[in-house]
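User: Run a structure prediction on this.
Assistant: Running it now.
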Amino acid sequence: MATYKIFISHSWGYSDAYDKMVGLLDTQKYSPSSFNYHNHSVPKDDPIHNAPSDKALRAAIEAQMKGCSCVLILAGVYASYSKWINIEIEMAKKLGKRIIAIEPWGAEKTSAVVKNAAHAIVKWNGVSVVKAIEASA
């Protein structure tokens, strides 16, 4: 059984969406497919959160992203205005990582920036997200 290495791009200011995505992925571990993953993201409580400079933070994020097979980006409209999510899109492209855009549940407006960069766009649904991750491997 494969273990998928993923990086979930998110804004620490919107960490509730990140937490919900991790919870959604965790519920898939108990589905008939027994989806397994390793989260390469940088959570809010990671010491790099207090990086001394943008350069140090960028290097830490890139190091985490290098080991993953795909990058999940929550495509809420806030993503269009996030400097870091745009940097992470740039890093993912440079590293040759597949980008999966996840449209928030019930959102009428989503980030065109994220969706234009994505290799796959899925709704906020565990099965859809897992299928996109598996297809990216």
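The first strand starts at residue 3 and ends at 9.
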